[in-house]
């Protein structure tokens, strides 16, 4: 039986080799999409450990970057099992980390899971200016716009970006995600939904399309 707690610990300890060995054994059994999603969630919990250790001064920027790469590799391994997608695109999502925030781990996890679910994802990266969201939304006409942020100041950037998008006449659904996001913040920002869990976020998007 898969030890999800062990997976969380391996991510938190940045034990890439051991983690990939566990994942290799896991995928040999052809897991279901739900089973694969629970592993991604366990990895997300491991990223919380990394974030906490960074805040406490135990880990450094290099460790955060390595953790992000570790998660990216994990998503690549699990992507074939996260959901069957064919040539039909479920919908289009414009995604980015808002201005003033340089974190991309949560964004990348969400992108990987959304792509596995059949979405076309246009990722404009980190520290994305308000105008970048507006311009790209006009260009690609996404059904959904996802804004990510880890820092508390990201909430103001999300609110300003949402106002600019609506002022530009863009009527895409807006979902926000990240540690500081709450129902109260979602309402203040003017977003349609919020999530702190990538799998849940993808389900919300699927409900919209």
From TrEMBL:
Keywords: Cobalt, Metal-binding. GO terms for biological process: homocysteine metabolic process; tetrahydrofolate metabolic process. PROSITE patterns: B12_BINDING (PS51332), B12_BINDING_NTER (PS51337). GO terms for cellular component: cytosol. It comes from Acetobacterium bakii. This is Cobalamin-binding protein. GO terms for molecular function: cobalamin binding; metal ion binding; methionine synthase activity. It comes from the Bacteria. InterPro entries: Cbl-bd_cap, Cobalamin-bd, Cobalamin-bd_sf, Met_Synthase/Corrinoid, Meth_synthase_dom. Residues 90-209 form the B12-binding domain. Residues 1-90 form the B12-binding N-terminal domain.
């Amino acid at each position: 039986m898969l030890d999800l707690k062990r997976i969380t610990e391996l991510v938190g300890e940045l034990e890439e080799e051991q983690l990939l060995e566990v994942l290799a054994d896991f995928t040999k059994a052809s897991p279901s999409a739900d089973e694969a999603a629970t592993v991604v969630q366990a990895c997300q919990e491991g990223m919380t450990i990394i974030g906490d250790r960074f805040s406490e001064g135990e880990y450094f920027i290099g460790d955060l970057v390595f953790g992000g790469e570790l998660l990216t590799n994990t998503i690549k391994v699990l992507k074939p099992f996260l959901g069957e997608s064919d040539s039909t695109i479920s919908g289009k999502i414009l995604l980015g980390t808002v201005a003033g925030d340089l974190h991309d781990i949560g964004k990348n996890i969400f992108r990987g899971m959304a792509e596995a679910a059949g979405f076309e994802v246009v990722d404009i990266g980190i520290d994305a200016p308000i105008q970048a969201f507006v311009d790209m939304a006009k260009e690609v006409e996404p059904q959904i716009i996802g804004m990510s942020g880890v820092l508390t100041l990201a909430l103001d950037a999300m609110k300003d970006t949402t106002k600019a998008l609506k002022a530009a006449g863009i009527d895409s659904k807006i979902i926000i995600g990240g540690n500081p996001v709450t129902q109260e913040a979602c309402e203040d920002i003017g977003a349609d939904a919020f999530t702190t869990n990538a799998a849940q976020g993808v389900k919300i998007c699927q409900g919209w399309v």
